[in-house]
Amino acid sequence: MEPLVYIILVNYNGFSDTLECIESIRNITYKNYKIIVVDNKSTDELEKEQLLFLRANTIYIQSESNLGFSGGNNIGIRYAKENKADYVLLLNNDTTVEPDFLIKLVAAAKEKEDKGVFGCKIKYYWNKEQIWFDGGTFDFKTANTSHYHTRVSNGAIEEVTFLTGCLMLIPMEVLNDVGMLDETYFLYAEDTDYCCRVMDANYKLYYCPNAVIYHKEGASTGKTSELKQYYVERNGLYICRMYSAYPLKACLKRAFITWKSVFRRRLSFKPIMNAYIDFVRNKRGEWKNQ
């Protein structure tokens, strides 16, 4: 009997992406799974046929408010825990998957005796030969994360220090021990925080290069939107403060690089200034001044 995997998709005004993701999941070779779609109080209306499709093929949960990426996923995680999940798979709704991706991820988890969190190779949806995530690292001095994009790999499962929240397979043992996602981030950096918490709890992060999905990177918030700039910067500062070996030095270095980009007009003044004001005030959660 295959372990029971709950696949969690968080939707916010991205129903067309979500439906395409579900269609790709329906073709996977792994059989013992259920899909949870958490709608984060979308303002877009569903067509009748789309709603019928969601209700027929998923556990469709509507949140009473927009809880961000972490909060939306936590709704699905609670449901999975209450319904005897063996694994929870966090998956961005703007992805599609290879038919064998989940069977390879679960096999990797079994090989490592469920002693960690598992990620996979992620390629660009619009250019399926180009790699977006090929494993990652967390720098314990600067608190910065990095994606590998092109590496020579022998296909073996390897230990890494960062996995993107675009896809995380989490065994229930790890989830019960480490806990759920931190909702105070709202958007961005919650995956970095979770990776650090997993490692702090003496579990591992594993990258499985033979499992592959495709990502429409930037589809939900835009690649350079003010919303993304604000959350990336504010939450990045919190990561520096909490997980860097030299928090003050890491925050100052980040500030220098960021403000240089603002002065060169690569980043916008308003969201970055708000990020620093809210960080100094220790304000978390949703950005209300957008």
General description of the model:
This protein is α/β, with parallel strands linked by helices. 39% of the residues lie in helices and 22% in strands. It is built from nine helices and twelve strands. The chain has helices at 15-25, 48-57, 68-82, 101-111, 172-178, 190-200, 226-243, 247-263, 269-280; strands spanning 5-11, 33-39, 59-62, 87-91, 95-97, 116-124, 131-133, 136-138, 145-147, 158-160, 167-171, 204-215. The strands form three sheets. A five-stranded mixed β-sheet has the order 3-2-1-4-11, with helices on both faces. The radius of gyration is 19 Å and the shape is globular.
Provide a brief overview of the structure.
The chain is of the alpha/beta class. The protein is built from 9 helices and 12 strands. It is globular, with a radius of gyration of 19 Å.
User: What structural category arises from helix and sheet content?
Assistant: alpha/beta
Can you count the helices? 9
Note the main sheet.
5 strands, mixed
Q: What is the spatial order of strands in the main beta sheet?
A: 3-2-1-4-11
Order of helix and strand elements from N to C terminus: EHEHEHEEHEEEEEEHHEHHH
Would you tell me the overall average pLDDT?
94
Helix content: 25-40%
Radius of gyration: 19 Å
Sheet-strand content, in percent, reads 15-25%
Uncertain runs: none
- Shape assignment: globular
Q: Tally of extended strands?
A: 12
Task: Compute the separation of the termini in Å.
Answer: 49 Å
